[in-house]
Fold:
Amino acid sequence: MANAVHIVVCAGIVPDPLQTLEPITGPNGPGLKNEMVLPAVLDPWAASALYEAANLAAKNPGSKVWLVSLGPKAKLQQVMMTAAQKVPFELVPIDGPIGGFPDAHSTAAVLAESIAALPGLDRDRLLLFGGWESATRGAGVTLQLVGERLGITDQFYGVDQIDLRDDGSFEVLERVEGGKHQVSVCAGTPAVLGWATGNLAEPRNNPQTGMANMRTIMPALQKARPATLAPNGLRYVSVSLPKQQRTTRVVKDLTPDEIAAELVEWIGAE
Amino acid sequence: METILVLTHTALSNETGADTGAALTRASLEAMTAGKELAAQLSASLTIGIVAPDSVAASAAASSLASAGARLLAVSGEPFAQPRYASDAAALEALARTANASIILAPASARFARVAAGVAHRLGGFIDTHITGLQIGTAPGAESIEATRWFYRQRVEAVLTRDVRPWFLLLDAGTHAAFAGESASAQVEQVAAQIPALRTTVSGLRSPAQGAQTIRPDAKLLFVAGAGWTKKQLDGQAHAPEAGDLILAFLRVSGASLGSSKSLVDQGGEGQPVLPFLTHLNQIGQTGSTPRHAKGLSTCCHGEEPHVVGWRFIAQRRAVSLDPNCGWTRGKADVVYVADAFQVMAKLNALLEAAKA
Amino acid sequence: MSVESTTAPSPAPDLDRQTMEVDIACAGFGPAMGGFLTTLTRAWSENPADPAFESKAAPGMPLQVLCYERADDIAAGVSGVVTRAQGIRASFPGLNPAEIPMAVEVTHERVLYLLDPIGASRRSLTLRAADRVLRALGPLLGARDHAFELPWTPAFLQKHGGLVLSIGQFNQWVGSQLMATGLVQIWPGTPVSAPIFPDAAGKDGPAEKTVLGLRLADQGVDRFGTPADGFMPGMDVRAHLTVVGDGPVGAVSQSIDQTLGLPQGHAHREWALGMKMVIELPEDSPLQPGAVWHTFGYPEPEIFGFLYVHPQRLASVGIFVPSWMSDPSRTAYRYLQHYIQHPALWRYLKDGILRSWGAKSLEESGKRGEPFLAGDGYARIGESSGSTNMLTGSGVDEAWTTGTQLAEAVVELLRAGKPFTRENLAATYETRRRASWVERGAREAQNARNGFHGGIVKGMIGMALAGLTRGHISFQAHIPPAPKQIRPMSSRSAARLKLKNGAVLALENGRPLHDALLTARGWPEIAFDGRLLVTQQDALLMGGKVQAMPGFADHVVFRDRRLCIACEEKTCIAMCSGQAITEGADGVPAFEREKCVYCGACLWNCAQSSGGDRSNIDFLAGAGGLHSAEN
Structure:
């Protein structure tokens, strides 16, 4: 049990990536049209983090995985119906606003507070996981802020791989410029890892995993504590859809030779 | 009155600048331009912070920025030779505390993106990232700085402002011109950083194991392969090996960077033929990357919205597709060639090779 | 049948198949299951400690109730409906439609006969003559935009006081409340491949009309079902009661019907494909929420259409393409595009934006397709139990009500401590159903559509007669199996000529034959605008948002390849809502799982059969499909 780790995965929920999004501005600031109607999924990068966490926990007996998620209770419940079938975890739901526009500092404060209060969590064995960015806010700052609040100064972002060694140290691969990975070795927990896609395939839906998770998920959801997020002086001047309609020339009657010649000229031009 | 600090770092072997001998990364020089422009607009004082592996590199970097006429601060030393959260956070914290700035600009490099939020928190400040534009607000009342950035994976654009300080702003690469000034000797103030006991060692860089290096962020051209490359072709058969050869040959002769649609990189899991050199690192779009290149050429790709959002920063766009009604034809590309990409790419490679010879 | 002669999945080895025992296992989450679980949990919630709701499968635990849904989300339903909501309102007496996104009360109904403004519609001589008379009298009859509005809406069509709903949103609303009770679990993304029958040796008990539970679909297999990376055999969920509500093309329903048979004289022979768009109406749209239009006459005389207006400037607009439209080149998507451009609709839809799109097979046999409603350990509810009323064009409310009836029966049996035997379910569930308005309506409707098999005019007369006499007067008809309703290609020379022209066009443009054929018949090309008029592939991505999880076998199977190779009609390709079935290189159609929207049209749009009612296509269980919640 030398390498038993306590992994807390911070994972938000985001609109299903296939949905059509349209911003609107309401009395409480910007949001998405029909946001509560759109089907939601676990944030894709955070989902990678969750699968990696489960994989790591499975390989290191005695480990445990918590999933901390902030969002409207009803939406969290809906997303858990799918997420719970993937891997074993204990849900820590926080009933709060949906969407990408609330301030990340406030989100981080609420998350850190919830994590610090987790019963049974050994902070010395903590690996704080999450996506390196979210598909809503896309800021890539929440996890760092949570890490700072928990006093963790070994942090890694754009992580694609972790190898936990027998001595408790681990090697991490982080995405950096140029399509390369920076390789680091950390002496051990605690640490923060913001995941990119990792290398694991999405786990199959396992009904038994789902049922086991649900035993704790539903009571947790019923007790989810509400959270309001302070704006921290953040004000939106405008929120809009990009207008990038181009005039497209559709070329149907050129031979491959002619097209190639045109492309060569285009590639070479400044 | 705002006080502006621009944070910069010297180039590592994997970053632009290293190969050209420039002291600072290109992204740092872009942030430098943004800071200079903003300081001029606000009549604010400007300080530049430099993170460097040693004092020589710090001096060289300072010299290249001398013409900006700003106060120059540097943190240097062996712990800063490699990017690492604990040491970099200590360096930026020391620079920011010394500068006592209200606005802190920094490039959204992997190195600074890792630590800037933590540093903002240590200073009791706030941060916004992926900024693509800065302007002075025209709203009545006090002068405000407005930052433009994307939400929902480049699908919603927002302009925001904050009235709390210090305010960190991380600028996306390519949104400003790189600062270029006459090099001159410059007075640089060395700042000491309080480094905690370091528990992480950086052992270097590793390229993806699979095949050739295909991601070239500095290339002018982005070449995107869509799922059509590995599907059945006109003869009813799939030709994945030939597709792979054509694509790699093109990358070789054109120097283009390789991107892919999600459906193509996902195909491995479906037991379909795959292009072995593609990984999720190549994926462009909503759940992939949003690179910046002057030109983009899409092939065998349907051009649907979730993919095309990843083309937000590709200026000129052309597509080769067999489908005359594909998404690219509806205002997403400048030119769509309705043709068989296998044939076009073979000819294109031949022409480019002949031109090279 | 040799392995080479079929594209059917090879059966996976039974090694390591997990088994779980529960009290009630449910297949499919739609309106019927919503009604069942809502009624069950409501009775249970009155006293959660009631010993009647103690589990027999897991003693000491509360009743274990699990529901498995194939779609990736319970909101991924496919129907914008208008319903009288009699049964739904009975379950939610104080229902405020504003609580359900996209729901609104019906405020205004109209029935429109649409003339053909283009001249491409295949109208009989009788109909053409009638159209000429109507056009001549047009000004007197108040005709506008090539459409005549019936002065009144026949009583049997009226939905006044009812609701316009998005089934996706309604399912989500119901499902969220159910999950919040914590009493039942609903698992999306989990297809059920088959019911578990007793084995032949009989060790599992009496074999006749018995179901022991549900087998979930295998994961981590290749397209033929062969174990591949991450193979996970589908679990066997053994249940004291299996509730089957997986719809008309559901794998469990089909399997039970094939294995246990249907009551004498019953068959699934009448079908329709409903395909619709959810359209965001222009900002200045005068259409009011709650408006309901029924149309007939265009784009083909056999195709009925509808327009329902939801709140927030959204409208569901769609058509029904019936199995008795014998044309082998029937193609719903192209027809839908012509339909929305009819002047009477286009006036309101022009400048609209496609928000969502979807398609679904409707089991139109109604009472005549009713299976055995219950057996030992199982009960059937919803559309696949023959509840849809084809006279009133209503199915959701009926489905919901059958679910509530079963739940009342289950609660009665639980409280009485009686097992879920065929006799006990017959005495409680079937009795309730037979005595209800659902049954009365089904009887009145059962012959209402017979006339359509003798032509559209006879069909309309027959429907009116049945409607006005409450089913007492109707035409008799012999209705052949669905494959036989498709007219063979070679039977008419004029059609052959058009087919040839269409084929040339298809070859030139590299597009599907059925699409080219419509052009050859005089239908104008669609002027794509990228907003509302989009290609079928774009509709999949923009409107339908279709996706398929990896790791499942192909769920569309061509049973005998030789029949496919010899088939000239290939109606499966023409009627595939997602263009997931295309011409294959070897004469057998090719199937792309990731484009399938699970409409199930291929099942009854196959002109080939090796005998009996079954066509040459099997439609099995699979995951993925639409991700649209606005349907």
Observations:
- The two ends of chain C are 40 Å apart (CA to CA).
- The longest strand of chain C covers residues 353-363.
